Amino acid sequence: MTPKEYDLFFYMVRNKGIALTRESLISEVWGYDFFGDERTLDTHIKLLRKSLGPYSRCIVTLRGVGYRFDTV
Asked: Are 67 and 45 in contact (CB under 8 A)?
């Protein structure tokens, strides 16, 4: 797991059960001065799910909103 994936994972775990918008994830994990697009977040989520293996199902995609971390 890369440091950025860890930061993303830790932020999602701290806010488990809460729908997190793409904007909030980007601003909290990358910072307010992030210059890029939302596809960066999607790529990191994909890599994070790969790192989590069977626990990847804990990261739920909320179409049109963002993501949510749920416990199994």
From this structure: yes
Q: 10-49 burial string, b = 16+ CB within 10 Å, else e?
A: eebeeeeeeebebeebbebbbeeeeeeeeeebeebbeebb
- Is residue 4 within 8 Å of 45, Cβ to Cβ? no
Q: Which two tokens stand for residue 50?
A: 């790969």
pTM: 0.85
Residue 66 near residue 27, CB atoms below 8 Å: no
CA angle 34, 16, 37 (to 5 degrees): 20
pLDDT of residue 21: 92
